[in-house]
Specification:
The chain has 2 domains: 6-17 and 87-210, Rossmann fold, CATH 3.40.50.1000; 19-83, DNA polymerase, domain 1, CATH 1.10.150. It is built from 7 helices and 8 strands, in the order E-E-H-H-H-E-H-E-H-E-H-E-H-E-E. The protein has helices at 19-33, 50-58, 63-77, 91-100, 113-123, 145-156, 170-178; strands spanning 6-9, 16-17, 86-87, 104-109, 131-134, 163-167, 183-186, 203-205. The protein has a 6-stranded parallel sheet, with helices on both faces. Strands 2-3 form a two-stranded antiparallel ribbon. The longest helix has 15 residues, at 19-33. The termini are close together. 40% of the residues are buried.
Length: 212
Amino acid sequence: MFPYTHYLFDLDGTLIDSAPAILASFREAFARAGVAPVRAIDASVIGPPLVETLQLLAGRTDAALIDALAGHFKASYDTTGYQATTAYAGVGEMLARLKGAGRYLAIATNKRLHPTGLILAHLGWDGYFDAVYALDRFTPRLPDKAAMIARLVADEGVPRDGAVYIGDRSEDGESADANGLPFIATTWGYGSLTPADLKPHWRAVNTPAELG
């Protein structure tokens, strides 16, 4: 087990495979809006916040269009769509082992707070986490993941010398760096961080068992 007392996790691509659910809801949103996406709706678009991804897919930043697409996405994803989410093999067992060993577990995710809660309950994980943070947990909305991690650390009294952030994208590592936290990259996620992508002070794990 790593020598940490506080484990802060990204969600999509790190703990859960949400691609089938998210991509289906993106496709439904564009179909309902009668708009053709300007790029492929595939796993490469998973990770950033919803509005940012919709702007990328639409190739436009028009507020009325993005609001309409977001509404269609939420209507699909937040009702039944999220139920297609699955856990990566071994993640549930890893979380149970860490929690059983008395570790503090938290989530800091770009996903909206409402579907995050739905997914944790769907997977039976809602009892594992001491805190769940999302950009839209606060008003005004937090600007980025680095600010979200900073808020979590401050609110929860997380000791920087005993904590680690775990994710699958370079953004995750850079957000950990911005907060003076070590970073562990999960190689099974959408970010697909390779050894060449890792900064010298970042570590990588290939299976959830290596974390727990």
